Design the sequence.
């Protein structure tokens, strides 16, 4: 029985009991790999062919486009990976249908960035029960059994990073007015960002005085910011969750002729980083939300199917969850992050 066939059989039997079994490495490690407790793993050496299906929301803003582009580029690096990419969609039913097609086509693994994690949970569970490892990206499923591994940005950490930076900038200003322009309020990731921001501000005696929500688009950012500026005659700092919608936020600020505050961005776009580097605008920082998550998903999917592990870990299987760091980019460190930034 091939490794892939064994993987699928084992996952079908045990998905409800031990999720990690679906990629269990029960045979002897291939040549060039170390066993449990070993040193190096030759992860990049060509191995058994892996067919990976990839589905994500529509690339209607820079960050999502960067996710998809990075995913394709990463897959192209491996001669043993065949990537099947379906058209990005914000239609939940269509995305469910796309995953159903991957299952019917018997792909070896699925990398899935769901438009809505809760809505895509049942079909992800179906894939896992069919023995197809699912790598969940960015927006979590409702069930821990719906994915073999999950790659996440640190949304709560984004809020903490942004709030900590605001606290440092407004040190000693107890009457400071802090505003927040969130993303899609119904998404857990937005809720986590807002919670982290509020928790960090609380540590220095500040709070969010004015808050509006947008939809991660330029148009929604401009509309939400215009409403915020009209409601708040004085602001000392604004944290905008997303640099793509930040293009609209900046337009609204310019139209209103406001410049008494500083801006902290979110996600880490190249245009915001260039403004930070030039130090000639309202943006003084942005908090990175990596657009490499899909690419990381490709690597994990390949390793899971081939029965390999991460070379920098002792464990013989891929991790259950990977949470990426959310650093603050300022003029002091912008040169480090700018080359990898996405264009809004």
Sequence:
């Amino acid at each position: 029985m091939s490794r892939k066939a064994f993987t699928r059989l084992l996952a079908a039997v045990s998905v409800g009991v031990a999720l990690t079994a679906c990629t269990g490495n029960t045979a002897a490690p291939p040549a060039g790999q170390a066993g449990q407790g070993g040193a190096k793993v030759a992860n990049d050496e060509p191995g058994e062919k892996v067919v990976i299906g990839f589905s994500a929301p529509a690339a209607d803003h820079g960050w999502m486009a960067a996710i998809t582009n990075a995913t394709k580029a990463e897959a192209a690096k491996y001669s043993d990976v065949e990537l099947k990419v379906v058209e990005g969609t914000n239609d939940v039913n269509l995305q469910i249908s796309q995953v159903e097609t991957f299952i019917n086509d018997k792909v070896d693994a699925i990398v899935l960035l769901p438009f809505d994690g809760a809505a895509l949970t049942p079909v992800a569970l179906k894939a896992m029960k069919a023995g197809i490892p699912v790598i969940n990206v960015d927006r979590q499923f409702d069930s821990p059994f719906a994915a073999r591994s999950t790659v996440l940005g640190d949304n709560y950490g984004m809020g903490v990073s942004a709030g900590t930076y605001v606290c440092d900038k407004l040190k000693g200003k107890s009457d400071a007015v802090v505003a927040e322009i969130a993303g899609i309020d119904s998404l857990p990731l937005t809720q986590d960002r807002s919670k982290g921001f509020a928790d960090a501000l609380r540590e220095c005696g500040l709070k969010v005085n004015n808050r509006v929500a947008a939809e991660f688009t330029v148009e929604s950012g401009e509309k939400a910011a215009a409403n915020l500026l009209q409601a708040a005659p004085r602001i000392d700092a604004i944290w905008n969750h997303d640099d793509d919608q930040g293009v609209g936020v900046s337009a609204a600020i310019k139209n209103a002729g406001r410049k008494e505050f500083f801006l902290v961005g979110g996600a880490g776009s190249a245009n915001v980083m260039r403004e930070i580097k030039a130090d000639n605008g309202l943006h003084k920082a942005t908090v990175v939300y990596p657009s490499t998550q899909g690419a990381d998903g490709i690597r994990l999917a390949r390793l899971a199917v081939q029965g390999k592990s991460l070379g920098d870990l002792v464990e013989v299987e891929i991790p259950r969850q990977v949470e990426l760091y959310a650093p603050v980019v300022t003029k002091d460190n912008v040169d480090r992050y700018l080359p990898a930034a996405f264009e809004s």
